[in-house]
Design goal:
Length: 113
């Protein structure tokens, strides 16, 4: 379970944030997850509950914002939605498009109290 390791890391960061600020609890953790990041949001939610148990983050809320993957074609300068890492440009069929978004896996904010 890849997601458990990711969540352990994210919760550790949230707990550090709370500790540094002198807060008693982590109230919520907000994540941004790209559609091509390879993680399953439901698995993250499940892992979150497990990882938070017995910590300052127990009972905290988790929100997962999904970031749709988009590519950019350097030839015709089109921006387009991607379902795979190597999606061809819908306008000129170029396969050299760059993935601009969709690999995100990051904490957007931590609420402490
Ligand atoms: Zn193109």
């Amino acid at each position: 379970m890849h997601e458990v390791a990711i969540m352990e890391e994210a919760v550790r960061t949230a707990l550090e944030t709370a500790k540094t600020a002198g807060a008693a609890r982590v109230l919520a953790l907000h994540l941004r997850v790209g559609t091509l990041s390879g993680v399953v949001p439901d698995a993250l939610r499940f892992a979150f509950d497990v990882v938070c148990r017995g910590t300052l983050a127990e009972g905290a809320r988790l929100t997962v914002e999904t970031v749709p993957a988009t590519g950019w074609c350097p030839d015709c300068r089109a921006e387009y939605g991607c379902e795979h890492f190597f999606s061809e440009c819908p306008r000129c069929e170029n396969l050299n498009g760059e993935l601009q978004r969709g690999r995100e896996l990051e904490i957007s904010s931590v609420e402490i109290g």
